[in-house]
Amino acid sequence: MKARVSIIMGSTSDLKIMEQAAAFLAEMEIPYEINALSAHRVPEMVADFARNAHQRGIEVIIAGAGGAAHLPGVVAAFTPLPVIGVPIKSSNSIDGWDSVLSILQMPAGIPVATVALDGARNAGILAAQIIATGNMAVRERIIGFKKDLASKIEKANRELAAVEMPFKVN
Fold first, then answer.
1. What is the pLDDT of residues 13-31, one digit of tens each?
2. What are the φ and ψ backbone dihedral angles of 41, each rounded to 5 degrees?
3. Alpha carbon of 131 to those of 12, 30, 69, 134, 165: distances in Å?
4. Which helix (H) or strand (E) holds 102?
5. DSSP code for 7
6. What is the pLDDT of residue 2?
7. Torsions phi, psi for 36 (to 5 deg)
8. pLDDT digits (tens, 9 = 90+) for 98-121
9. Phi/psi at 97 (nearest 5 deg)?
10. Which strands form 113-114's sheet, in the order they lie side by side?
């Protein structure tokens, strides 16, 4: 089994957040790899990784980073693959805003799809949806996942209907 998605993070301190992407990919039965790469500490390794990921069968890269959060953008500069950036509120972060803006504000020609602060699960979902464009089995699992989301809301509304409140009319 070869990885189809590569999950990378600037430091293993980001693992608690990034494992949420891994968990979703596992739910969807999509093989992935997970590594720490730092745009600042090992820039040559990052460039080599990004240049060669597609040749190893990787289809999507999920890159999480906190603080200045350059990893997703640097990777996007070197790869033809879609990159999904996960801004992480880290110990050296300015309430997470520095990470969000660093990933979100990419120059023309170097796009990075950006999810919410600490939103690695959504990054995993987006990666699966990208893969689903060319894989019917993954598409069917995504469709099932979306149906489950709808079922949860329908159940919540049934439960709310049973709650008594003054002036509630439904």
1. 999 999 999 999 999 999 9
2. -90, -30
3. 26, 9, 25, 6, 46
4. helix 97-104
5. E
6. 97
7. -100, 130
8. 999 999 999 999 999 999 999 999
9. -65, -35
10. 32-36, 5-9, 60-66, 83-88, 113-114
